[in-house]
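pinned: reference chain
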Amino acid sequence: MASNLNVTELDFDQIKDNLKNFMKSQSQFNDYDFEGSGLNVLMDILAYNTHYNAMLAHFSLNEAFLDSAQIRGNVVSRAGLLGYIPRSILAPRATVQLIVDVTGYQGTLPSTLVIERGTKFNSVVDGVSYTFSALQSQTAVLLDNGTTKTFKFDSVPIGQGIFRYLSYRVDNNIENQKFQLSNSNADTSSLRVRIQENQDSNSYDSYTQFTTLQDVNSTSRVYHLQENSSGFYQTYFGDGIIGKKPTNDNIVTLDY
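pinned: its structure tokens
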């Protein structure tokens, strides 16, 4: 008989046997039938609770280490400690030449034509429609050879999909405020981060993604990118020591 409770077992049956042996060693239960009495049900409950807690501790410990973690949110959290950012979905891309023929246009033509970032183009392949968007703004000048008038864009980078635009107001009363991209399938390689002084301002300050501490100071316009536990990417900014800290009521604009 066991005078002390053995706590080294993890399997349900062995935990229950340990509990029974411990109870049988107590003088108060010398004449009890642990197999057929109500105590058998209590032993089941105690063994189940112990087994449940042991399994919970086992799984929790596994998720605390990168090598054994299986839940993506935990893997991302562990990898973040190493400075690793999971790569997002990458939209199919191409570089195309675009010629806009305005020979038959009636009216005054501008000397230049601009394709803005986010301009959409549609294509049909084998009966399937695809939408692409310009990844950056580009300007072409009017070409007039006497018979035709065209605007020629030689190298226009495009990516499949459409642009999303988000605006957030900075509130430094919120500790560690973060600004989330609203789509789980966002292509972060196309992300552009800009900040306005306020909602009435027409000027933007562009920020670049933080990659190294080298040459980063309190005025550096950098943003940090990470994946959160819900699988969405989010950005945040410096603290005024490492990277410039936005002020209250600044407007953060994200497009991707």
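why pinned: The chain has a mean pLDDT of 87. The chain has three domains: 12-63, 93-160, 165-255.
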